[in-house]
Design brief:
This is Adenine DNA glycosylase. This protein has about 350 residues and is α+β, with helices and mostly antiparallel strands. The chain has helices spanning about 5-15, 30-40, 45-60, 60-65, 70-75, 85-100, 110, 120-130, 140-150, 160-170, 175-190, 210-215, 270-280, 325-330, 335-345; strands at about 230-240, 245-250, 260, 265, 285-290, 290-295, 300-310, 320-325. The protein binds iron/sulfur cluster.
């Protein structure tokens, strides 16, 4: 097999079957490609498209994003998950405006020094926005390369990861960088899918090791399994006589950093004294609502909601607490499980 067989086969397939109408390519700008690439980390194209449209309507330029309050950026991200992406996007926008005069670097090393931009993302941005040769290695590309070369190990292992970068580098052509990059991502997303790949439609089938050995399901190997621990938390749904709900902005570090959530407690008996201290209520009666289950990367969380209706009083001392009506709630960034919980009581 000639070295360029892989890229030629992919480019030919892409011309006919690739996704040519992605909104971040029309009009094409490095800013739009960057935002889309960050949104597409861990998230599928079909989910990203409406978020991307809303984001661009509110932050049409790098400068508008850099000047926006973080809260507003997080609100546009609410529901997409992995909120560190939004915080890093905002941080990187400020950095680009302040330290790079608003101009995106055109080399992978400098671009990947910005918050939230790894080597693969930097490669994807440079290849797509500037049509310059820059290999990428996202999840889809890893899967295609593992299958094509019959690699059954887990790509998270350093030596496997290094080998995959070598292969990505080997196959990336000198010409048509933008099309080739999109083609590799498209093949992984639409043809060489995680389960049930459509090998009968695949342009790489002729030389694909996994196809010839029928070992698609074993390539790439899975991460060694660890049983996730389970945690539980009580969350307070306090509403007042005006229908407002008590929300608390989370610290800027840790889970759901900077988002608005419900006050939480590890111990149920701490809720009433807390209400007395911060809202001056007494004789409060809590009602247990159905638990909500949510899985993070590192653990399962069981949320045990407790509902209470109280008379509105001034909030004492804690500035990160706020009574919010439905309109105000819609303006804040809330984690998806909290939105789900609030929907059950509104
Ligand atoms: S032939 Fe099948 S397993 Fe091989 S790259 Fe194509 S879709 Fe993936």
């Amino acid at each position: 097999m000639r070295r360029d067989w892989f890229s030629k086969a992919l480019l030919k397939w892409y011309a006919q079957h690739g996704r040519h109408d992605l909104p971040w390519k029309k009009p094409l700008s490095v800013y739009r490609v960057w935002v889309s690439e960050i949104m597409l980390q861990q998230t599928q194209v079909s989910t990203v498209i409406p978020y991307f449209a809303r984001f661009m309507a509110s932050f049409p330029s790098l400068e508008s994003l850099a000047n926006a309050p973080l809260d507003s950026v997080l609100q546009h991200w609410a529901g997409l998950g992995y909120y560190a992406r939004a915080r890093n996007l905002h941080k990187a926008a400020k950095c680009l405006v302040n330290d790079f005069a608003g101009i995106f670097p055109k080399d992978v090393t400098t671009l990947s020094s910005l918050p939230g931009i790894g080597l693969s993302t930097a490669g994807a941005i440079i290849a797509q926005a500037y049509n310059l040769r820059a290999p990428i290695l996202d999840g889809n590309v890893k899967r295609v390369l593992c299958r094509f070369h019959g690699i059954k190990s887990w790509p998270g292992e350093k030596k496997v990861h290094d080998k995959l970068w070598e292969l990505a580098e080997y196959h990336t052509p000198k010409q048509q960088a933008a099309d080739y990059t999109q083609a590799t991502m498209d093949l992984g997303a639409t043809c060489c899918t995680r389960t049930k790949p459509s090998c009968e439609l695949c342009p790489l089938q002729k030389h694909c090791a996994a196809f010839s050995q029928q070992s698609q399901a074993q390539c790439p190997g899975k991460k060694p399994r660890k049983k996730l621990p389970t945690k539980q938390l009580y969350m307070l749904c306090a509403q007042n006589q005006h229908g407002e709900l008590l929300l608390q902005q989370r610290p800027l570090k840790g889970i759901w950093a900077g988002l608005w959530s419900l006050p939480e407690f590890t111990d149920e008996s701490a809720i009433v004294p807390w209400l007395n201290e911060f809202l001056g209520t007494s004789g409060a009666k809590l009602t247990a609502l159905s638990p909500i289950l949510h899985t993070f990367t590192h653990y399962h969380l069981t949320i045990l909601p407790r509902l209470i209706t109280i008379r509105k009083k001034a909030i004492k001392s804690q500035s990160n607490l706020s009574w919010l009506n439905n309109d105000a709630l819609a303006q804040r960034g809330l984690p998806a499980p909290i939105q789900k919980l609030i929907a059950t009581i509104r």
